[in-house]
Amino acid sequence: MRSTIDVGTAAGTRARRLAVSLLAACALSAPGIAQAHARLVSSEPPDGASLSAPPATITLTFDSRVERNFARLRLIGPAGESTLSAGSGEAVQSLVVQLPSLDSGDHRLAYSVVSADGHRIEGTVRFSVEK
Question: Global pTM?
Fold first, then answer.
């Protein structure tokens, strides 16, 4: 004997709601579905680099797209602190930032970006320019 549920009954409505709830729970718990935050995978110059000449730009490359419009960049070095621009436009995987003329010494680029999933990611890239 086969058992069926009439979808027009209260039991059918409960069964339908349970099925939808189970599907939603499975979808939300599935790994890798736009849940991961962006992370920095490389920079040029690399973190901790010792350079013989000051770079004209610094490139930050992430494992997923970041919103260029919401990037906050601060360069801290021997001459003090300055705010840099990542430009404007659509989300990108790599930010290329123009640097001012740099003095010899230790420099630190503090970044704060928003990933495509809406989460803010912060970090620092350090490098030095030899005398």
Answer: 0.72
